[in-house]
Predict the 3D structure of the following.
Amino acid sequence: MTDTQTALPRADIAASARTRRRWNPRSLLSKRESPVVLALLLLVLFTYLANPRFLAPQGLKDLMLNATIMMIMAAGQALIISTRSVDLSVGSALGLTAFLTGTLFATYPSIPIIVVFLAGIAMGAGLGAINGLLVTTARVPAMVITLGTLYVFRGVNSWWAGSTQYFAGDRPDAFGNLSVSLLVGIPIITIIAIIVIAVVTLFQRYSRSGRDLYAIGSDPDAAIVYGIPVGRRVFTAFVTNGALVGLAGVLYASRFNSVGAVTGTGLELQVVAAAVVGGVAIVGGVGTAAGAAIGALLLTTITGALTSVGVDKFWQQAVVGGLILASILIDRLATLRRARNLRKATS
Amino acid sequence: MSSTSRGRLSLKVGAILFAASLALTACGATVNDSPASPDTSAGTDASPTENAGGGDLSITFIPKQLNNPYTDVVLGGGKKGAEEAGFTTSNVVGPLDASASSQVSFINAETQAGTSVIVIAANDPDAVCAALKEARAGGAKIVAFDSDANPDCRDVFVSQVVAKDVATIQLEMISEQIGGKGDIAILSATANATNQNEWIKFMEEELASNPDYKDIKLVSKVYGDDDDTKSFQEAQGLMQANPNLKGIISPTTVGIAATARYLSTSEYKGKVALTGLGLPNEMRSFVKDGTVKEFALWDPAQLGYVSAYAGKALADGTITGKSGDKFTAGDMGEREVGENGIIIVGPPVRFNADNIDKYDF
């Protein structure tokens, strides 16, 4: 049972690597992402028909800003999940970097904004390195390790922050404006996020180490036999994800009013949900950062759409849950069909 | 070959040790965080002997959760009150999360330590009840503050303000700010928050019955769960779903701050009025940039202060918690126990550009 499950995606990858070697714009959004994109477009269309203000300039801006932070985190998580790991500590890591941002501005009011960004990214990468080191050396499933670091990071945050909170008023206006200013109609931080996500996706698709991540996720043992430096690749994935979470933490401090001991609590599940909805299979081996980001966009848009048409928010969680189940079912059906086709082709 | 496998083994052991030490640090951090838990047991271990020696009184505050800025101000007032009232030891213990059952173990520890007065803000009126009854059986006096426990299991409840006053002051403010007519909405905490729901109920009654508010229409009630991000999105949803919205009342500190942050960065700034209950430190920048004209709150320090004196009066036997009992709460003067053992601290304070800099909490 497990054998067929793990072996088939591997064959799939070999096949897709062969077909994707040549540049093909249509393959940029593979089949895995198209249902999500379709769902997103339909959602936006129907909400717009129900309430035209949904796509008014302010509504559109809110839509993009709400999704930005989650999109960055989902893209990072896609890297990790595609290696058949998971990082559950991202909510706590975001809390720490957001609080670092608040602290830096409160302690050094004239600190250049770029330095704060670099510090946040560096701290996130450091936290990711801790996760990566533990996962690759201890050989314990990442879920257990990062569940531990979820609490460790949160504990450190509680100890560090205590009841201190930093508010938007404590930070320079220029920093707060980052998350609301527009460039050709698109918020600046959304543009940053899109660039970052595009880079990560291209890396996944076209670079050798990027392809290695999928190979590891499809079959870790085969990847070792094949000579892929599994430990190093997984470690790098965790560090990259950490850096992205660090970036998200800084942006969080720019966007929201307060950062403190509980900032980011519970975000990890939303991030994993976004990645799964965006076509990143939880068993590893498939899915892209772009897909995960679109998943994040879909989930935040659902919340926005449902509040915009005045649907009770208790239904919102049920809708999100239904989406996760639907995407897993679709994925499972597609896998089964692919398996049948492959069997037909080989026999 | 064998050397490499040994190398890997030691690496593994090292990693496990590292993980374990991290896990321990985690515990350490949480314990540090509630400095109270180890400290108290040490402090209260000593206090029974002290009690035996000279009848010294100890008081312990159990807030809804630690690391909450609002709670810190309440406890600051409580500490001051406890010193002035003559308690020899005062402690703070409490959970890091505000869940229903998280306070029980702390109450049990206080019972065992023989603490004379327990001051508690109940996360759930009934979940703490059994533990509090046990504490009372052991001779402790129970003062509920901020959020009431079931009246059967406490002696008195010190309430910030009269619930009705909180409701009316918020309606007065919004009415002034929108010129007495138009659509308004409420952005609350969780859908089952006792305090907020009581205030909202009074507001709805007042809107329906008071002719001054006949042109004001409450069009929507939404819940941000006292979460920055959720409140933020609920505020956006309110704007989109109600194009004619003139004002928002947010009777919760998290909600009003998140809504203010959203309004201040949107096209609605200055066009849609916002008021409610907020902390001056959190709201200062929004009052100064014109997003918010005026909001209200009680002085949280006074709540802790009066609670400490109420505890002292109970322990001394000056009051028993029945209606009509009177005691003196230090600088705050005389307070009377009302029906159901409720003690009221004082009227809410309005904060605006003129006075906000005088407050630091």
About this structure: The two ends of chain B are 65 Å apart (CA to CA). Residues 2-33 of chain B form the longest helix (32 residues). DSSP finds eleven helices and 14 strands in chain B. Chain B touches chain A through 55 residues (CB under 8 Å).
